[in-house]
Backbone:
């Protein structure tokens, strides 16, 4: 077969029309030749994980042309230093070849039978050696080229440059951060979380997870509620193993509600190590706080009728809307409570708030909320719920984040509980759609209902 038939065909003006195919082997069809090319040519990014084992990558060589039943041979070799520098010079690159000690490949001559449309060459790379030899004076590659004495090579796809990036494999919590579960009945409740790795797992090994009180202390300092460390006699913790074929290990927390009071608890967990020394801990997935809201079903709460004599507040406008009565005087365009936006009544901690004085102590609180009838411009974004026995000393029992977008939009809260009964509730809005309520903005409300038990 003629090696340069494609160029001859172009010289005489023969139009070559490629046809679509899944592996693009017909992209360079010619009526007169067999053409070989790398399916993935140019730069090929490959991540190598340091696991004590080599990482394999398969280079694929395609056969195309009008006679797909033809037999042919090709040679796949690592480019010489001289050939690589010549390529750099002609293409404007700065490729640097990794030493041959970093890899092996099943190279040499490959033979295409009449039914073969592609062949593969396996490149096996040593991550540790690759990492040792990657410098900062260019792009370090393992360069390959195709040659053939029998048939043509597509000039644009005859080179493949494997660009390895070496990483240490890691494990981490799939859903790091804080996660809360409401527990409303006695008995055992099991909560599961996954520990994951980013690669196909070929190993059996364990990971270590510790309870870290300092993690909870740090979290309590950054949020409004104070979470109590989950008592050791109220739970059991099991950390599953990684097994070959699965990149997930399961952590199971089983909580016995009968050993808890009401309110907010948390178990702060830190992933501390793996029995396979090749794995490190992913910093972003290192910690997990499992929050427990020990509470009751909302259906157990009764509505508490609102009246002006039980309401007070700070930063409530008397010049817009219907004042505190706007919380319970119905839903309509002129019926709403509005926070101050003229006199600068904004508390740096509580923002603008409404206090509810209750006739009977409760341990569980919930509310329904409607945005202002006409729009959600001042609807709450961040609301903090406080409880008190005297209306002076407050402790936080919950926090709510909303994303209201429309007028007369309803939100029904969950249940906020305390281990001690309380007679006052503070509904504190620190951020609204209008801005930061602690520093000068405002919030408003179309209607509220409160519930307690």
Residues:
């Amino acid at each position: 077969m003629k090696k340069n038939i494609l160029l001859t065909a172009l010289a005489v003006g023969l139009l070559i029309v490629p046809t679509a195919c899944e592996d693009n082997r017909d992209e360079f069809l010619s009526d007169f030749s067999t053409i070989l090319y790398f399916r993935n040519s140019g730069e090929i990014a490959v991540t190598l994980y340091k696991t004590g084992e080599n990482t394999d990558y398969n280079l694929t060589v395609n056969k195309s042309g009008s006679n797909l039943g033809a037999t042919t041979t090709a040679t796949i070799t690592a480019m010489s230093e001289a050939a690589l520098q010549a390529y750099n010079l002609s293409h404007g690159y700065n490729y640097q070849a990794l030493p041959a000690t970093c890899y092996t490949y099943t190279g040499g001559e490959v033979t295409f039978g009449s039914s073969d449309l592609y062949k593969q060459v396996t490149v096996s790379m040593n991550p540790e050696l690759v990492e040792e030899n990657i410098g900062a004076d260019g792009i370090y590659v393992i360069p390959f080229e195709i040659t053939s004495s029998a048939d043509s090579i597509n000039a644009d796809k005859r080179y493949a440059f494997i660009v390895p990036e070496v990483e240490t494999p890691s494990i981490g919590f799939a859903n790091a951060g804080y996660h809360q579960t409401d527990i409303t009945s006695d008995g055992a409740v099991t909560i599961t979380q996954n520990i994951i790795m980013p690669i196909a797992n070929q190993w059996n090994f364990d990971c270590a997870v510790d309870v870290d009180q300092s993690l909870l202390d740090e979290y309590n300092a950054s949020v409004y509620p104070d979470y109590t460390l989950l008592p050791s006699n109220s739970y059991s913790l099991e950390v599953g193993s990684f097994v070959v074929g699965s990149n997930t290990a399961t952590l199971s927390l089983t909580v016995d509600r009968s050993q808890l009071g009401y309110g907010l608890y948390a178990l702060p967990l830190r992933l501390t190590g793996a029995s396979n020394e090749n794995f490190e801990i992913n910093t972003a997935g290192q910690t997990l706080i499992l929050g427990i809201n020990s509470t009751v079903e909302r259906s157990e709460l009764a509505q508490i009728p609102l009246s002006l004599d039980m309401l007070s507040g700070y930063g409530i406008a008397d010049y817009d809307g219907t004042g505190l009565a706007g919380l319970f005087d119905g839903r309509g365009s002129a019926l709403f409570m509005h926070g101050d936006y003229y006199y600068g009544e904004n508390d740096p901690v509580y923002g603008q708030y409404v206090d509810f004085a209750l006739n009977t102590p409760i341990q569980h609180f919930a509310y329904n909320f409607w945005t202002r009838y006409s729009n959600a411009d001042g609807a709450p974004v961040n609301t903090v719920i406080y409880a008190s026995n005297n209306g002076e000393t407050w402790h936080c029992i919950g926090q709510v984040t909303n994303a209201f977008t429309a007028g007369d939009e309803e939100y029904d809260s969950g249940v906020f509980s305390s281990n001690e009964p309380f007679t006052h509730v503070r509904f504190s809005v620190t951020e609204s759609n209008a801005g930061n309520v602690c520093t000068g903005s405002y919030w408003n409300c179309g209607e509220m209902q409160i519930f307690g038990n």
Summary: The two ends are 90 Å apart (CA to CA). The mean pLDDT is 91. The longest strand covers residues 352-370.
